[in-house]
């Protein structure tokens, strides 16, 4: 099956809202806290978050760096940037400057930042090595880049459950789109891209965290509307929606724990690269 990657976009207004409400709290915020914690950005430093989405990592950076620092967030989706800007400022955080723009080229001068982050964005760029080269360019001589990339779909069981349900319900094309964020990259392949982009020291390791939907299958299924599939799911007729709901209950049932929560591992690559 040929996958039309152009259909997997974060530009529709439905997506940023659902992403921020249904996926950030149980999934992206815990991973953001981990990424920024491992990076340990310097207090008062300058940080850039590439593919910032609704600003989940960006705000973590602003908290870690403190009010004497500076933080920038950039994303190609104007709808995501609008969502990021809607979050209120918090006392003690560095000021955040959000920009709608591409990762290649980045609209910043050379050596503008002490740290750069990219949480689950590299796999969406047409050329990950070229994007990493831009991140390297805007870093100071001793700057650091922290990035993460999901492991294949089979290593992220809730999303594998979504794909199984979509296929069984007759929407194999949507299941194929859902697999886009989960590339078959190895640790060595990710490291090679960073080295080819000009980073001198690169370390890649596996990281695992549980994804938990405490309210069970209904909550887990709702989270699918936080993906770029949201507009296509909204267009389903009542019979199609009912069929998908039945398959979703079946595919997620093995992940339900005794307390009724959907609980399963998510596995990602975590990369730290230094100039």
Please give the CATH class: Alpha Beta
As for the number of domains, it is 1
Distance between the amino and carboxyl termini = 40 Å
Give the percentage of residues in beta strands.
Answer: 15-25%
The total count of strands amounts to 7
Q: What is the third-level CATH name, the topology?
A: Rossmann fold
DSSP helix fraction? 40-55%
State Rg.
Answer: 19 Å
The general outline is globular
What does this structure look like?
With 275 residues, the protein is of the alpha/beta class. The chain has a single domain (5-274), classed as Rossmann fold (3-Layer(aba) Sandwich), CATH 3.40.50. Helix content is 40%, strand content 22%. It is built from ten helices and seven strands. It has helices at residues 14-39, 56-65, 78-85, 128-137, 157-168, 172-178, 187-196, 217-223, 230-234, 238-252; strands at residues 46-50, 70-75, 96-100, 113-119, 139-150, 201-213, 262-274. Strands 3-2-1-4-5-7-6 form a seven-stranded mixed beta sheet. Strand 2 (70-75), helix 3 and strand 3 form a beta-alpha-beta unit. The longest helix has 26 residues, at 14-39. The chain is globular, with a radius of gyration of 19 Å.
């Amino acid at each position: 099956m040929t996958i039309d990657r152009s259909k997997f976009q974060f530009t529709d207004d439905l997506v940023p809202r659902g992403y921020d409400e249904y996926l950030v709290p149980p999934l992206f915020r815990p991973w953001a806290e981990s990424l920024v914690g491992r990076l340990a950005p310097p207090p008062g430093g300058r940080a850039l978050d590439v593919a910032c989405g609704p600003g989940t990592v960006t705000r973590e950076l602003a908290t870690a760096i403190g009010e004497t620092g500076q933080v920038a967030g950039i994303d190609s989706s104007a709808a995501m940037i609008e969502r990021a800007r809607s979050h209120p400022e918090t006392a003690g955080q560095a000021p955040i400057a959000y920009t709608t723009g591409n990762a290649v080229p980045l609209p910043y001068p050379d050596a503008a930042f002490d740290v750069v982050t990219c949480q689950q964005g590299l796999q969406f760029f047409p050329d990950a090595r070229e994007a990493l080269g831009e991140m390297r360019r805007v870093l100071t001589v001793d700057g650091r880049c922290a990035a993460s990339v999901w492991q294949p779909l089979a290593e992220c069981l809730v999303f594998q459950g979504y794909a199984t349900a979509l296929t069984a319900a007759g929407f194999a094309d949507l299941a194929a789109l859902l697999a886009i964020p989960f590339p078959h990259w190895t640790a060595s392949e990710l490291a090679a891209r960073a080295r080819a982009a000009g980073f001198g020291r690169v370390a890649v390791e596996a990281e695992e965290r549980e994804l938990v939907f405490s309210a069970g299958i209904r909550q887990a299924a709702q989270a699918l509307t936080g993906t770029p599939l949201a507009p296509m799911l909204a267009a389903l007729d009542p019979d199609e929606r009912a069929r998908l709901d039945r398959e979703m209950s079946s595919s997620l049932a093995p992940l339900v724990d005794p307390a009724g929560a959907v609980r399963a591992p998510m596995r990602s690559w975590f990369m730290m690269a230094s100039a």
